[in-house]
Amino acid sequence: MYAPFVISGITQHTVSDKITFTNSNLIQDLLNENLQFSHYGAGLVGISFFYIVLPPDNQNHREYSRYTGKDRLLHLQFHLPYDLVEQLTREQVLPIMAQKYLQALKEVFPKKKIENFVYASLLKDMERLFEQQGWLEKAVSIG
């Protein structure tokens, strides 16, 4: 990976500009500039996160999470509701992306059992960063 936190999307062309590059780079840059995996242990050195934003009839991309202990990398793909993203502006989608990022990690970390890594501290620091940006308070509920 070219950076510890990598964020991108698998999107329908009609909503791509709401996910990639502006919004995904805002989240990615915030995390890369403020968090270092070494502060939380040696068990993880990177997270790649892909937002899947496709029409409901497109079933080609499934949510998944995979941790590779050899590389100490966590790879995730999670859906955002296409209909909601389509209706909102890019600025309104950013908080939803931040919320989904945190929700996904809160769901995945306990299941992966990554040795020598204090994920609760990382999540707390991420949440604090997102709150400082005002992203979590502005997020529309995505369930």
Give the domain tally.
Answer: 1
Overall outline: globular
Q: Helix count, per DSSP?
A: 6
Briefly note the structural class of the backbone: alpha/beta
Spans where pLDDT lies below 50 across 5 or more residues: none
> What percentage of the residues does DSSP assign to strands (E)?
15-25%
H-E string: EHHEEEHHHH
Number of strands: 4
Q: Gyration radius, to the nearest Å?
A: 15 Å
Distance between the termini: 31 Å
- Compute the average pLDDT: 95
What portion of residues is helical? 40-55%
Largest sheet: 4 strands, mixed
> Going across the major beta sheet, what is the strand order?
1-2-4-3
Question: Quick gist of this model?
Answer:
The chain is α/β, with parallel strands linked by helices and 143 residues long. The protein has one domain (5-132).
Question: Could you walk me through the main structural features you see in this protein, from its secondary elements to its overall organization?
Answer:
It is a single chain. The chain is built from six helices and four strands. By secondary structure, it is of the alpha/beta class. The protein has one domain. Strands 1-2-4-3 form a four-stranded mixed sheet, covered by helices on one side. It is globular, with a radius of gyration of 15 Å. The model has no long low-confidence stretch (mean pLDDT 95).
